[in-house]
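Inputs:
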Amino acid sequence: MTHVVITGTGLYTPEHAIDNAALVAAFNAWVDAENAQYADAIQRGEREPLAHSSSEFIEKASGIKSRYVLDASGILDPQRMRPKLPQRGNDEPSIQCEMATAAARQALAAAQVDATDIELVIVACSNLERAYPAVAVEVQQALGTSGYGFDMNVACSSATFAIETAANAIASGSVKRALVVNPEICSAHLNFRDRDSHFIFGDACTAVVLENSAVAVASEQFEVLGTRLVTQFSNAIRNNAGFLNRVTDSDPLALDKLFVQEGRRVFREVCPMVAKLITDHLASLELTGSDLKRMWLHQANRHMNDLIARKVLGYDPSETQAPIILDRYANTSSAGSVIAFHLHHDELVEGDIGVICSFGAGYSAGSVVIRRL
Ligand SMILES: CC(C)(COP(=O)(O)OP(=O)(O)OC[C@H]1O[C@@H](n2cnc3c(N)ncnc32)[C@H](O)[C@@H]1OP(=O)(O)O)[C@@H](O)C(=O)NCCC(=O)NCCS
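Outputs:
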C-alpha cells in the first residue's frame, strides 16, 4: 500500500503590514469625509451618517491585530482604499506565480526535493488573477517542475481540497511527488469601505510538498492518515465577480463583486459543521479528539477556532494545542491552516497526531489527519 507523506512546507509573507490602528484611522478618515460631503442630507434625515470603526471591536470580535498585504499605501489612502498593484505584461511573471515560487522554494528545500522531481503542481486559492493559462502551469515553468499542473478554487478550503487531490494522485500511482501552493491576495477582493468586514483579510502564500513515502528523504515527515471533505451550498459568503459580468451588463465595480458575508450566520452555521467533520473523520480512523496533539485550524476568527476545538477535544485548547496565527496574519483564506502548520509543528514527536482543517465559502470544509513519523 502506498503511504503519502508531507515532507516540506513554505510560507511567503508580504513585506507590508497594517495594524488595526492604521486600518481604522484610514477608514475613519474616509467616513468623516463622506459624512461631511453629505452633511445636508444627513441633517435633513435623508441619509444615515456612517459610523466609525474601532480597533477594540476588531480585536475583541475576531482576535485580529494586524495583517500583511502586498500594498499598504493604496489601502491606507482614504481616497482609494484598495491596494495599488501595477499591471504586468504577458512577458512578466504574474504576481501569484511570484508568491507561489517564493513559498514553493522553501517547501522544496525542506523536503530536499529538486523541482524537476515534482510531477504535479496544484495552485489552489480563493481568487485567481486570470482565467487562463493556469497559474499552476506558469509556476511549473518558473520552478522547472515536470508533469502537469492545474488551478483549483474552493475558497478558504482550497488548500485541504488540493492536498486531498495531490494525495490521491500519489496514492493511485499517477505521480510520486506533488506541490500544492496557495497564493492568496485577499486584499484585492476585500471592500475596505465596509465597516463589518474591512479588517478581516490579509495576503500570504503557502506551499506543501507531498510524496510517496517510498521516495521521501526529508528529516521531518508527516504521514497523511486520511482526508475528508464536505460542502454545503450557502449564500452567506459570496463574491459575484465572474467572466459573465461583462455580458450581463452588470457593474464590474459594484460591491457584490467583492467579498460579502453575513458574519454571524457563518459563525453559527459553520462551527457545528466543522466540529462534526473532524469528529466523524477521526472516528473513521478509529481516533478521537483525545488522540490529537494539535489542531491547525483555518484562521478566520479566534472564537470560531476556540469553539470548534472545544467541541472536538472536549475541553478548552491551549495556544499550543490549537495555534492562532490570525492575530498577525488575519484571515489569509486557504493559506491560514497551512501557515499554522508551517509555524507550529516542530515540537511534535514521532507518533503525534494532528489535524489540518479548513472551512469557508461554499460552505466547504476539509480535514487532513496526519501523524509525525
Ligand atoms: C465578522 C465578525 C468578526 C463580526 O463579529 P460579530 O460579533 O458577529 O459582530 P456583528 O457583525 O454582529 O456586529 C456587532 C456590533 O458591532 C458593530 N460593528 C461591526 N463592525 C464594527 C467595526 N468595524 N467597528 C466597530 N463596531 C463594529 C455592529 O454594528 C454591531 O453593532 P450593534 O450591536 O449596535 O448592531 C464575526 O461575525 C465573524 O468572524 N464571523 C465569521 C466570519 C468568517 O469566518 N467568515 C469566513 C470568511 S472565509
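Remarks. The longest helix spans residues 263-284. The first strand starts at residue 4 and ends at 12.
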